[in-house]
Amino acid sequence: MVILDGKKVSEKILNTVKEKISGMEVIPHLVVILAGDNPASEIYVNNKKKAAQKIGIKSTVIKYPSDISEETLLGKIRELNDNNDVTGILVQLPLPEHINKNKIINAISPRKDVDGFHPENVGKLVIGEEPYFYPATPQGIIMLLDEYNIQLEGADAVIIGRSNIVGKPMAQMLLKRNATVTVLHSYSKNIQEKIKTADILISAVGKKIVRCKMVNKNSVIVDVGIFRNSDGKLTGDVDFDFVSPSCGFISPVPGGVGPMTIASLMYNASKIYK
Ligand code: GUN
User: How far is the centre of ligand 1, averaged over its atoms, from the C-alpha of 118 (Å)?
Assistant: First the structure.
């Protein structure tokens, strides 16, 4: 079994991005909008800011209270779209419940949409055109798999979870690389049998779902889940201690997909479109 070391690979990517930025005439400027007081979001936004700082990307975090109006948020996004000094805009999700998430995402210029969540970027990805940005988590996972020379072409890939942030774009990106893709979700039948067929298994659920004897011995396991177990320890969707001895490759939590997502986002944030 080989560990997919996201920490190591992310450092390599961040160094490459840092070098690229040091040679750029215009310094990229990422603006992150954080609305409300979700503690996990605060941590994620902080990590993004720290990573940007480390590699020379200018970053600004704009914080709003949870009762911020949709209109104020939309107004700020329009202002950032028109500001030539701002090259990337990221609205941290989830947003407070009274705000229409899609309306907010639709307002971001696709050329500054470093998350790749705007319908124009999603549409380009689906029809096989190059989007301005690929969503950070699936792009980071592909970077990780490529670093370990894992063959995607012709592979049977099983994704657990169908979110707009991970599952759906992951499926599209793997299809683009000629994998055969199955997406499992809460209505799927015979989940265990389908997991067992996977050459590549990507779990993005947020609860312990992949256990001992569920995977085949050459499979590549990518764990996107991250949450605290009852002892307060950070853990993922995969029962690492039991699954890892009986698979080919596995990404740990923490130290797997998490740092890759940040590196992939920084890669996106280093791109500037006019
Ligand atoms: N919340 C959880 N993951 C993400 C992400 O990739 N982007 C944004 N904007 N919010 C998130």
Answer: 13
